[in-house]
Amino acid sequence: MHSLAKTLVLSTLLVAAGCGDDDGPVLTDGGPDAAVDSGGMDAGGRDAGSADGGTIRPDGGLCMAEGEIDCGGICVDPRVDRTNCGTCGTACATGEVCNVGSCAATCGAGLTDCGGGCVDTESDARNCGACGTSCRADQICSGGSCVCDGGEEACGGVCVNTASDPANCGACGAACMTGEVCAAGRCGGSCSTGLTDCGGACVDLESDDAHCGACGAACTGGQTCIAGACECPGTGELCGASCTDTASDVNNCGDCGTVCAMGETCSGGSCAAMCVAPLTSCGGACVDLMTNRRNCGACGVTCPRGQECSGGVCGCPAGETLCGGACVRTDIDPDHCGACDAACMATVCSGSMCLAMCGTGLTDCAASCVDLDTDPEHCGACGVACTGGRLCDTGMCVCPAALTECGSKCVDLTASPKNCGSCGFACGQGTCVASACVCDDPDRPLCHDACTNFNTSADHCGGCDMPCAAAQVCRGGACRDSP
To answer: What is the pLDDT of residue 471?
Structure first.
């Protein structure tokens, strides 16, 4: 959920930076930390790239959108920018379009040519429903329409969270008196446990993207607020201007700044000649079209914020329903109680029914009846959200039993390339399988964090750390005199 304060901060940042609103970079299929933040790097704010040639990068700051890169001080999305298609300075020829980071004659399936960039008008907030139709900074694009995000509603032309907005506390137009704050949809003298007063809005500094760690400290560059600090969600890493997935980014393959050669792909953090099935190359990024929310069913087809990709189709997570383009919990949402068009009037929503009050063991959090012992959005107190893949257990945010807490995130040590077998043990170019680092290409085994061809490497000829003499070359895994 997002407060009005968050909306105002986002609007200010977007005006200052001139940045647009889209869904970011080409990512892999969620990866081993998918349980942390569903679908790879999706938990960031409403940031986005554009197909209009880029925007000025804030002085000393990050680009607004995840996946954007800095090309001469300009933030561009290399997936759609025809003057920087795939990488800085790679311009498409006259008549060509930039299709998911590659110059092409036409756009791929499900994409539309908007100013030379191939975009998904179903989810692109700068081209929502049609080229040039932009959503406001506080909106998302879903199903080709500009709508408020889940947990928010439109009040006076602005998307707000009535649970914390002092101008619309509990309902549109219900303003708190001077000196009061809005907490859980009610005006009061002070914020409840776990929340902080930020301009009259009671927010969780541990999870609020507009007030991360302190009031007004907004997360940018595709980062989200995890345990009070701005971090890249899921398997993402902060590389230069924004968050990206080094497992598939050809401009940051395996590590920030490692650029794959022209024509190569990035798979599992290693540059390779091609993607290995079942992965598909989308602008050089090897992704699973069945699960990748930024390439769902086809390259560049992006699931709207809050939705995930399953079987190549975008949809809401389990337990949520798509209502007006946003995923909501109809079991507790007073505006969609039991069904999308069923709103509770001056009552609470509990178990998909409008009731006069919450039952035993449940707490009224902005007209939603929740269990503070188990609800991850209201853990221990209304508005206190669990982040980093944690769930709520007896009112405390903890990692699931199968995951381990590494820093601020819950990770799978058996499959995380950045925490393989133990926290902080990175595989470099390799991937993590059963807590061991391995390379995707069997002809290039892992050697000192690099996938190496023992048949041709003069430093590792026939095996790791088996160098050839200065005048020799490696052929077929054996050192031979140079001809």
So the answer is: 86
